[in-house]
Design a protein that fits this description.
Blueprint lengths: L1 E4 L13 E4 L5 E3 L7 E3 L9 E3 L1 E3 L11 E7 L8 E6 L5 E2 L4 E3 L9 E3 L2 E2 L11 E8 L7 E6 L3 E3 L10 E3 L9 E3 L1 E3 L13
Antiparallel strand pairs: 1-2, 3-6, 4-5, 7-8, 9-12, 10-11, 13-14, 15-18, 16-17
């Protein structure tokens, strides 16, 4: 927490200018209201001198932690003290193997989170009878926006003629295909009065 310079021999304490400062690079800062770190001379040979005036820097939470479940245990630096536990928020459709929180770069700066990404739906492999109109957003859950219509020769459920829109649903988990349904092949019947008519 401290950097100390100067001679530690008691008679030379003041003449040789023993000084202390906070190790900013290690995550420390002056205590609120302190003008400098203080070194207090020992009372007798073999005793320790004391240091005061420095404290750990405090990190703030990031402005957005969307996709993360955050548990802040210690949000002060140095890095050895800093402890923020993260999990990807699967209920909000995020995934990741090893989410990490990194201590801030200075006092009252936000710490960083990384490692969780939004679930993405893949395009189905079988498109028989379907035609993509627009894949605006294939992220799973809120925001999912894909438009699919029935191809020529197919009709949408609820209609009897060609064309119409297919039903499109988000996927069940990251990397799975989104679901399309509702387009059926148009089947003609044999006219009455022909040999094949029933």
């Amino acid at each position: 927490a401290y950097k100390v310079t100067g001679s530690l021999e008691r008679p030379f304490w003041k003449e040789r200018g023993i000084r202390a400062s906070c190790k900013v690079e290690d995550g420390y800062r002056l205590q609120d209201g302190a003008k400098a770190a203080v070194v207090t001379m020992c009372a007798a040979h073999g005793q320790e001198y004391t240091l005061s005036g420095c404290q750990p820097q405090i990190c703030l939470a990031p402005t957005s932690v969307a996709g993360y479940k955050v548990s802040e245990t210690v949000i002060s630096r140095p890095n050895a003290l800093f402890k923020v536990d993260l999990q990807c928020d699967t209920e909000a459709f995020y995934h990741g193997s090893f989410p990490v929180a990194t201590a801030c770069e200075g006092h009252t700066k936000p710490y960083a989170v990384d490692g969780c990404t939004r679930d993405i739906c893949a395009r189905p492999k079988d498109w028989t009878g379907y035609e993509i109109l627009k894949e605006t957003d294939t992220r799973r859950g809120t925001g999912f926006q894909v438009s699919v219509k029935c191809k020529a020769g197919y009709y949408a459920e609820g209609t009897t003629s060609g064309a119409g829109m297919a039903k499109v649903e988000t996927c069940d988990s990251h990397g799975d295909p989104y679901k399309i349904s509702g387009c059926n092949p148009i089947v003609c019947t044999t006219p009455k009065g022909t040999d094949d008519a029933k």
